[in-house]
Design goal:
The protein is mainly β and 124 residues long. It has a single domain (7-107), classed as Immunoglobulins (Immunoglobulin-like, Sandwich), CATH 2.60.40.10. The chain has strands spanning 7-16, 21-22, 27-32, 39-44, 54-57, 74-81, 88-95, 100-107. Strand 1 and strand 2 form a beta hairpin.
Length: 124
């Protein structure tokens, strides 16, 4: 992104146990909400459960200073996948021009015999 493009920044922090344990090696997919789910970034969490901070296109911050303008932000969705945990999807993640944000995500471990995407149908 060039320096004149409105840009927000996002880092994702993935934990388990109510935030007590980092989840390293989780796959984090960032998609732009208005593009029908096109993946912009495919990231992996480090040993502390953090992704790199990535730039995201945002709307000009001046939009938030005038009444009557629609959303002064751009909307994204973030999907987190890790073996042994239920998949997590966070919609309506907002990127504001000039703002750095950290999205905390708590993954829930699978129970014995659980499937991360629901129970499969067995056909004989």
């Amino acid at each position: 992104m060039d320096s004149n493009t409105p840009t927000g920044y996002l880092k994702v922090s993935v934990t388990s146990g109510g935030g007590a344990y980092p989840v390293p090696g989780a796959i984090v997919l960032i998609k732009r909400g208005e593009d029908g789910g096109r993946i912009l970034y495919s990231l992996r969490t480090d040993e502390s459960g953090q992704t790199l901070t990535v730039p995201l296109a945002a709307k000009d911050e001046e939009l938030s200073e005038s009444p009557g303008n629609d959303m002064p932000y751009t909307v994204y969705s973030v999907e987190i996948i890790k073996d042994g945990y239920y998949k997590s999807l966070v919609n309506e993640v907002q990127a504001f021009d000039g703002v750095s944000a950290t999205l905390p995500v708590n993954l829930v471990p699978l129970g014995y015999g659980d499937f991360p995407y629901g129970n499969p149908t067995v056909r004989g």
